[in-house]
Amino acid sequence: MELYDTEEQQVEAIKDWWKQNGKSVIIGAVVGLAAIGGWKYYQNYVKESQEAASHAYEKTISVLSSKGAKAETDVQAFIDGHADSQYSVLAALQLAKIQIDANHLDEGLAQLEWAKSHTDDNALSTLINFRIARVLSEQGDYAKATSSLDLIKDESWKGRVLELKGDIALRQGDKDAAYVAYTEAQQAKDASQTLQFKLDDLTK
Asked: What average pLDDT does range 121-130 have in this prediction?
């Protein structure tokens, strides 16, 4: 470190440093302020976009609730317009339910597959994989249905997964495999009350 004997020498040293570095300091300060301002702008933009998407989602679901399958075009328009938002995934799940309830299984499955590819939320992915498995089972595609169930690793879903695997085995005529699946499902925390009835039917 340099030491200066007099106040004049210190002043001259500061002047020399400023001549050499002053421009960089000013530019750095401007860039820094711009970055801060840009970040705040971005945060505000994201917040406003999320709020707008939330309001649009609520409105869309309200229309879906009142019109049912007739609101399909409106819901699809919302999904397409908010593809980067998780609200679009939720809307796709709602639309899929309406379509599946109307026995439009292919359309419902397509919505579920789209939702699956547009979310990285583990809880939603688990729900979607389970619903996909149910649709595939209804369509008779048991191998794919089982594969979809195998993707579910959440222990809180163990009972439901095993029960559906039992249903699939039963549809394929494998009563022994169904019995094993139902019995294991009964030990899970999320075991349904219908399992005992299914087991009783198997033993008749």
From this structure: 94
| Rounded Cα gap, residues 8 and 110, in angstroms | 79
> Which residue type occupies 71?
A
CA–CA gap between residue 68 and residue 95 (Å, rounded): 9
Q: Which two tokens stand for residue 68?
A: 């049912």
Element at 25 (helix H, strand E): helix 7-67
For 55-73, the pLDDT digits (tens) are 777 787 777 776 767 778 8
Separation between Cα atoms, residue 155 and residue 141, nearest integer Å: 25
Show the 3-state SS of 43-97.
HHHHHHHHHHHHHHHHHHHHHHHHHHHHHHHHHHHHHHHCCCCHHHHHHHHHHHH
Whole-prediction pTM value?
A: 0.73
Q: Which two tokens stand for residue 185?
A: 């499902």
Residues whose CB is less than 8 angstroms from the CB of residue 116 and which lie 6 or more positions away in sequence, other chains included: 125, 128, 129, 132
Q: Are 131 and 150 in contact (CB under 8 A)?
A: no
